[in-house]
Write a structure and sequence with these properties.
The protein has helices spanning 17-30, 45-55, 81-86, 97-102, 107-120, 132-136, 140-151, 179-197, 217-222, 238-250, and strands spanning 6-10, 38-42, 61-64, 91-94, 123-128, 162-165, 206-209, 228-231. With 254 residues, the protein is an alpha/beta fold. It has a single domain (6-250), classed as Alpha-Beta Barrel (TIM Barrel). β2, α2 and β3 form a beta-alpha-beta unit. The protein binds phosphoenolpyruvate. Phosphoenolpyruvate (PEP) binds next to β8.
């Protein structure tokens, strides 16, 4: 049994505000009386404000998929922490592999975002993970260490922060990491987080992400050091997403 379990949905560039509304409605019916898992919906920016209203009275949280570290200014296409907060957002995904690899985000940018999110009262879902090349060339440990030490530099109070270990080769590929690989990586992540933050790092939940679905969620959640999941593809349908939540709920202590 576990004491806690998070299930965060990363919808990426999918769903309009209307799609999001009907998703929440369907999920409410599928997840009656399921309140043990902490469920976080991360829709695109355009659905946040509306979704905050749909989530009123539901035991679920709202997250965004990115933000800028500056408060305001000439940053075309960007969104600030204050804008997210005003839209009802509590969590924000930072350093997602697609941001790192498709949009060139580096550790120093991600670090500024983490610091800004925390000082604004937003909870970062800070993502780290190695590519297949990095794993196969024996550099996984070094990559995770660098992403964590540079990404968390200067963090004094990480209250509410979540870490997501997401091996790049497992994201959206249908090839999840196995329990052994996850346990090894989560142990490393926790060690590096404690190296950066001290003992307080031990309390930070570490989620796994990468091709989690309703079939593998039960066994992956049992892996040591896994406090929940960040889910992409399987979070896009209410049925598959609620099955994952149910699997997690089964293993959370009353
Ligand atoms: C993700 O994008 O964070 C993710 C884990 O995607 P998927 O579940 O589709 O692998």
């Amino acid at each position: 049994m576990k004491l806690r379990g998070y299930v965060a949905a990363n919808w990426k560039m999918n769903k309009t505000a209307e799609d999001a509304r009907s998703f929440v409605e369907k999920s409410s019916k599928l997840l009656l009386n399921m309140e043990k898992a902490k469920v976080i919906f991360c829709p695109p920016f355009t659905a946040l404000f509306d979704m905050d209203k749909s989530l009123q009275g539901k035991p679920w949280f709202l997250g965004a998929q990115n933000m800028h570290w500056e408060a305001s200014g000439a940053f075309t296409g960007e969104v600030s922490s204050a804008m997210l907060k005003a839209s009802g957002v509590q969590y924000v995904i930072l350093g997602h592999s697609e941001r790192r690899h498709q949009f060139g985000e580096q550790n120093d940018w991600i670090n500024k975002k983490v610091l800004k999110a925390l000082s604004s009262g937003l909870k970062p879902i800070f993502c780290v993970g190695e590519t297949l090349d990095e794993r196969q060339s024996g550099n996984m440990e070094e990559v995770l260490k660098t992403q964590i030490s540079e990404g968390l530099q200067g963090t004094n109070d990480p209250s509410g922060m979540l870490i997501a270990y997401e091996p790049v080769w497992a994201i959206g590929t249908g090839q999840n990491a196995n329990e052994e690989q996850i346990e090894e990586a989560h142990k490393l992540v926790s060690t590096f987080v404690c190296d950066s933050l001290g003992d307080i790092g031990k309390d930070i939940p570490v989620l796994y992400g990468g091709s989690v679905n309703s079939e593998n969620a039960g066994s992956l959640f049992k892996a040591e050091g896994v406090d929940g999941f960040l889910v992409g593809g399987a979070s896009l349908e209410p049925e598959s997403f609620s099955e994952i939540i149910k699997e997690v709920e089964t293993f959370i202590k009353e």
